[in-house]
């Protein structure tokens, strides 16, 4: 089974982007952590990032019937995009939403997520460990 790991806008800048908020790890570091976690659990993953909302929508559409779940950090689109939420629903796949930072102790505009109501679960504030925990959950739940 394949888990799609999706990253939204500006996450390609991790490592140099607001390190006080997001830490010093790069997206390549997070990709490696996910690959290691997947290997430990016999999961297949596809790890992707885009700054183009339409591209993310296309990836979500293509996952339907092909993947077993979606782990997504929608980044700023979390707070703005009905389209991403609708695409995730249309995929008919279980979704885990992850954020590096604890969005609830940040600006009020980050407290609302269009994705959370349709997600199986949400992990935030645990940095890259959130990705690892989300993948572990998928590995466990796919075993039955
Ligand atoms: C983020 C939180 C969002 O509010 C923000 O726009 C991001 C990153 C996080 O991982 O903490 O770009 O999703």
TrEMBL record:
Keyword hit for Repeat: no
UniProt key word Acetylation: no
Enzyme class, broadest EC rank: lyase
InterPro entries found in the cross-reference section: DHquinase_II (IPR001874), DHquinase_II_CS (IPR018509), DHquinase_II_sf (IPR036441)
Residues the record lists as binding substrate: 73, 79, 86, 100-101, 110
UniProt keyword annotations, A-Z: Amino-acid biosynthesis, Aromatic amino acid biosynthesis, Lyase
Function comment: Catalyzes a trans-dehydration via an enolate intermediate.
Family that this chain belongs to: Belongs to the type-II 3-dehydroquinase family.
PANTHER family in alphabetical order: CATABOLIC 3-DEHYDROQUINASE
Protein name: 3-dehydroquinate dehydratase
Species for this entry: Ectopseudomonas toyotomiensis
């Amino acid at each position: 089974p394949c888990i799609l790991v999706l990253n939204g806008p500006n996450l390609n800048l991790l490592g140099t982007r607001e390190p006080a908020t997001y830490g010093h790890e790069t997206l390549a570091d997070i990709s490696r952590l996910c690959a290691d976690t997947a290997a430990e659990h016999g999961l297949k993953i596809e790890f992707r990032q885009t700054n183009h909302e339409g591209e993310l929508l296309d990836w979500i559409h293509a996952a339907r019937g092909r993947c077993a779940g979606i782990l997504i950090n929608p980044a700023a689109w979390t707070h703005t995009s009905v389209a991403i939420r609708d695409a995730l629903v249309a995929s008919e796949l279980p979704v885990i939403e992850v954020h590096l930072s604890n969005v609830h102790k940040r600006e009020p505009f980050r407290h609302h997520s269009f994705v959370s109501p349709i997600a199986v679960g949400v992990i935030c504030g645990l940095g890259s460990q959130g990705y690892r925990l989300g993948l572990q959950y998928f590995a466990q739940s796919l075993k039955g």
